[in-house]
C-alpha cells in the first residue's frame, strides 16, 4: 500500500516528535526577530512584513515575495547583501530598502478570512503597502508564487514600479498536438518527465494552482 493513499501515519508521528522535542525553534525566532517587523490591515486582511532600510541614501525600495510553501525566512540571508552591499563585498551603488511581506494566509499574515486571494488581489495589496510606506518608486522581486505575483504588481502600478525580477518563468504547451510534434527528442523527454511529475507528485499543485490562475481552462492537458 505504501503511500498510495496518502502519507502513512508513522512518518508524520516522527516528524511531529522532532518538531516538539528536537527542532531549535528559539534559534530561528532569534534570526527572524533580528529584523524590524510590522503588520497592517489592507483590504480587510492582516499583512505582516519585514521592513529593512538601507544605510545608503540612494537605495531603491524593493518588495520581495516568497512562494508556496515558503515564508519570509527564505530571504533572511539576502537582507544584509541587498540592503548593505558595502559591508558584504558588493556594489555600494546598488543598495535596496527591503519590504518582505508574508503572503495572505502565510505566517503572521494568516489566517485569511475569505476566498478570492488570487495573484491580482495580492498585487493590489502590495502596491498599497508600498504607498503606505511612502515609496513612490520601487522594484518588485519574486520566487515561486512570487514569480507570478510580482509581474502583476508591475502591471497594476506601472507609474511607480521601475522593474520586476523573477526566478521562474512558467510556461507549458497549449495542448495542441501539432505543437508537441515540433519538439526535439530531448524536449519530449522533458515533457514526459513533467507529465509523470503531475501524475505522481503534483496533487498539491492541482489543489492550489487555481487560486492564483483563475482564468486557466478547466480541461487538463493530455499526453
Please, could you describe this protein's structure?
With 223 residues, this protein is α/β, with parallel strands linked by helices. It has 2 domains: 35-170, Alpha/Beta hydrolase fold, catalytic domain (Rossmann fold, 3-Layer(aba) Sandwich), CATH 3.40.50.1820; 173-223, no CATH class. It is 39% helix and 17% strand. The protein is built from 8 helices and 6 strands. It has helices at residues 9-21, 25-33, 76-83, 119-132, 145-156, 177-181, 185-201, 203-212; strands spanning 37-42, 45-52, 60-65, 96-101, 138-142, 161-166. The chain has a 6-stranded mixed β-sheet, with helices on both faces. α7 (185-201) packs across α8 (203-212). It starts with 8 loop residues before the first helix and ends in an 11-residue tail after the last helix. 20% of the residues are buried.
How are the elements arranged and paired?
Layout: H1 9-21, H2 25-33, E1 37-42, E2 45-52, E3 60-65, H3 76-83, E4 96-101, H4 119-132, E5 138-142, H5 145-156, E6 161-166, H6 177-181, H7 185-201, H8 203-212
Parallel strand pairs: 3-4, 3-5, 5-6
Antiparallel strand pairs: 1-2, 2-4
